[in-house]
Records
---
Amino acid sequence: MREYRIAAIPGDGIGKEVIPAGLTVLQRLARLTNEFRLDVTTFDWGSDFYRSTGALMPQDGLHTLQPFDAIYFGAVGDPGVPDHVTLWGLRLKICQGFDQYANVRPTRVLPGLKSPLADCPPGTLDWVIVRENSEGEYAGQGGRSHRGHPEEVATEVSIFTRAGVTRIMRFAFALARSRPRKKLTVITKSNAQRHGMVMWDEIAAEVAKDFPDVAVDKELVDAATVRMVNRPGSLDTIVATNLHADILSDLAAALAGSIGIAPTGNVNPERRHPSMFEPIHGSAFDIMGKGLANPIGTFWSAVMMLEHLGEADAARRLMSAIERVTAAGTTLTRDLGGSAGTAQVTEAVCDALT
Ligand code: NAI
Ligand code: MG
């Protein structure tokens, strides 16, 4: 029997609702397949931990997580703690500390769900966004001087390194090659951002030479939003910087039906450290504690985690259970136009596994 050690970090808000739901589904799946076991350890890190200890995770938190095979993460963010404190104190600490430089975000319109786009027949919107996850606009470089004075100045410096851009391009080209259409769109802003983004374009063109079978094109990030809305079928695999992809992937999730269904993997491709899988949504203050959160993004993230662990059959089985539930349309949360709660969707997916 294969065994995997999973670190579960529900975090804050609806993270505490969707991660237990995801673990329920995963354990049911493991029992049914009877081929692997999941040894799950749950960590109570997040804003409550911060209120009692002064930090979102213990000082040696990364050391604690290192031996795990994967991390299953909910969301972090609390109405009483500034967002930059929560984000940098937990999620980014793990992403950067474990060099999870490839953030992979698949988006498609699941069976039975409807895109808000008027013209989007099934199969048209099927994208994977690859987000650079270690540097760029979120490198954390910058500072503030003369705080509170009229002459106050703040800088937020984007960092692009040849090594960082090259590795994310190689990852994105390889992913594009593995998909049927073998098509990659490089998102840029090299008209206005004339240093980092010009190097980004140059490196994309260099890496493209090693992937002659991948069709590649280039789109400015602002034009990309228009193309996503007007010509969704013209896109397949997309690579973008940390900030650009952050924004485009929220739009992508909305175009696929709801932010509540979208999954992501923060991947350390060399597998020197555990990778982390999470829904792309946040802690959703407006619905937390009510049992209304859509757990599908968390379930789909579990599919990505299983793929990463090498459990391809189990991953497919879970994905088709999710799709059976969306296709039936009878057990959907409010964000998808239904009236079910987290628990009912979880039960429906568990039933669909059998
Ligand atoms: P959000 O994703 O938490 O919520 C945006 C909207 O989508 C809300 O109306 C919410 O109710 C809805 N929504 C989100 N997930 C849903 C789900 N599973 N089911 C049904 N509806 C859902 O984004 P927001 O409001 O900008 O941020 C709230 C907090 O979360 C902030 O503190 C923010 O910093 C944090 N955040 C954390 C992230 C993470 O940990 N990865 C990602 C995004 C935001
Ligand atoms: Mg975001």
---
Amino acid sequence: MLDLMKLCTKSANIITENNIVIAIYPGSFDPITLGHLDLIRRSSRLFERVIVAVLRNPNKRPLFTVEQRLEQIRLSTKHLPNVGVDSFDGLAVEYAQMQQAQVLLRGLRAVSDFEIELQMAHTNKTLSTQIETVFLATSNEYSFLSSSVVKEIARFGGSVDHLVPPHIALDIYQCYNQKSLASNPNATNITLPCESP
Ligand code: ADP
């Protein structure tokens, strides 16, 4: 498979002199799910280096701070030696250029993802012809899974143990527990482990 990927990237002229293909996997990862992690694990077998890049997006109100998300991802990927974790702001293409990466990696869950992802890939191509967007289809068992689904379940007190790694499930439960405590007018001195919506 690595050879096939090499062949494709070679014909697209994106292999560097040192024969290394670096892929950036950009996203919000608020929080990272088993679906994201499945994609990261599979892509780590295709590329010499994969950088999971958390977008610092001032327009979104996340559940977890960027620093918390970075730590969650680091813990979840520590068994994959060629996977790095970083954050960026601005354009993913510019970040990829800065990292000397040749590939932007995106996951496809359903046709609904495809429309927006294809538009984004075309847009990015207008910004840099050197960077290729590579789509990986999600594994079947995670095709329904998104960070929003995880948050929605947890918000209503459901279990997310089967959707995220155990340490992240704990972070989520703590976060929503604290939130419900904080909304109690009698509660004092509450420090939230996550961003306050
Ligand atoms: P964004 O805000 O960029 O959509 P996300 O964190 O939601 O960020 O997703 C980042 C990338 O991961 C996207 O390419 C998305 O399609 C992909 N992705 C999300 N959920 C899954 C999943 N369950 N399986 C595979 N890929 C996924």
---
Amino acid sequence: MLRGRVVVTCDTARMTTQPGPPRETSGGHPTSSAAAGTGTRLDPWLSAYAERTHGMRASEIRALFAVANRPEVVSLAGGMPFLEGLPLDDLAELAARVVATRGLQALQYGSGQGDETLREQILDVMRLEGIDAHPDDVVVTTGSQQALDLVTRIFVDPGDVVVAEAPSYVGALGVFRAYQADVVHVPIDADGLDPDALESTLASLAAAGRTVKLLYTVPNFHNPAGVSLSAERRPRVLAIAQRYGVLVVEDNPYGLLGFDSEPRAAIRSLDADGVVYLGSFSKTFAPGYRVGWVVAPHAVREKLVLASESAILCPSNASQLAISTYLSTADWRGQIKVYREQYRERRDAMVSALAEHLPEASWNVPDGGFYTWVRLPQGLDAKDMLPRAVTARVAYVPGTAFYFDGSGADHMRLSFCYPTPERIREGVRRLAGVVAGEREL
Ligand code: PMP
């Protein structure tokens, strides 16, 4: 029996129902009554979804990514770290040891804030970027992606403004959208976020009576732009945010992956009260354990723990103990050096291939991280071109993914983290062929 009332709109393909449990087909899947006869499965819950889900959309490029993952395609699209240099035998032994010696803890529920020993070890990692914090200031999260979700959840009401770099990390934009924030972008240049543009944006938002809750920034080896906020700009950006009463969210998964430089002092090292800092083991070790963290002022930290407990009760003890054991027994600093060398070699392959094959485009030469941000020759549209690129067996992410309003089609993000240098060169060669074809169209 169908208990939800079917409401057929003028477009029958977008039929909705009043809320109510779905009718079961013989296969056990909910269908609408009209759809049952046609074999088309429509969503009988369409009108029941919360308002906030309207902003949640599948990436337009997800379908192409399924193709991009085929072995014959060189994917310069994803941001997956290259893990083949990890000592997997040692890590297998370490994981087994965790269960053998501390299994009852590893497999049990744990603290909502995260394991205390790990929180102390995280302080050692952050000291490399000049951060002086207390273990109590740290909340362990399921990757820094969950940290982004928690921070947004506790601060952002629908319609609040989040100020973010143009372009910005696509996963952060997705979170802001899910909480119905309005993202206002501020331009960046070779030295990162432009403080003058930040100042004038915040001034005009204040004049318009808008509520600005967060300034979201990736200050090191930006995703997707590859640039870093200069040392000179860091205190200026902070001072401007402070003047307008805006909390800075410093998202820093790549900070230790500089190719030629020592880690820069974090914005959080300049101020403990106005900055929420997000860290992650995903790029400096491995993303599979899904361990990240937040450092936040005391009162904010309490709210973050409550929000995290309501979402997940507690982060995985098994993952936390594995990472904690890795930090205490393995040469994690040495592993980061290995990564830096691997990614530097790949960056070199990327920029030399661009110079050889695509001289009519322009790009930055990142000195750390995973990404090159490429501006296409005039008139070309990276989103429009993507299906033809995938046909030519190369994939990238169009710039449109990194702007809240979908602009940025003249850019693409090329990741050099995962493919080998030879594959990167081959990918750029294929891309150049696609660009040449576009210009003839
Ligand atoms: N922030 C940025 C800027 C990222 O690039 C990523 C991953 N690509 C994340 C956050 C999320 O990382 P994780 O959840 O694996 O820590």
---
Amino acid sequence: IYGSADAASRAVAEEMARIIRQKQSEGRPAVLGLATGSSPKKVYAELIRMHRQEGLSFRNVITFNLDEYHSLGPDALQSYHRFMREQLFDHIDIDPAKCHIPDGTLPFQEVHHFCQQYEQHINDLGGLDFQLLGIGRNGHIGFNEPGSHVNSRTRLITLDQTTRNDAATEFGGLANVPRKAITLGVRVIMQAKRVVLLAWGEHKAAIVKQAVEGPVTETLPASYLQGHPNVQFVLDESCAASLT
Ligand code: F6R
């Protein structure tokens, strides 16, 4: 629990930088799972600052994003491809060929094969060294909505009504919010060597309390993280206010 989201984001960026540098010194890639949305923005800003001012290099970094709306193209205003370019990739020395984000434009019949390959690629690299997460107000991680099994695979999912409502403003109305998305499965997230979940603000306090202190249940996928051997919830004070 940190006094502010700023301080917390700096600490998380430092942890990511440590992993990147450690892997660099071993001559190995750092395999990072990344999230979009408002929660990680300051972490990415801090990583960019470290790149510019402290010479942090991302040349050995390979990234896999959690999710993408189906069927948004990479240049659509709300697409996560665009978000990642604007918030991080365009401002650091990462090789664009090493940045992976689910392809939201695939025809339905090709999605399953794509998802299998996405997971295989992560596994071939030895799994995720670090997974950054946010949490939805319904307890989703990635777009693993309530009802997602702990062993769920990377797949096309129908978005929950809460998720669509929360995205409505960004899309200029509920009717414009996609109904489906591709998400990394819970199983892959649970296999990451380290998981850090970010949550800021009063509006996330109730769901964070349930995820941390309540029962582990498929109705709240973030609660699965209670069973992860190396997980941390990084919160600001207002978000942690309801914790016992
Ligand atoms: C985004 C993602 C989602 C968000 C969650 C919280 O890639 O996977 O699970 O992390 O919806 O979103 P924000 O941070 O906007 O509150």
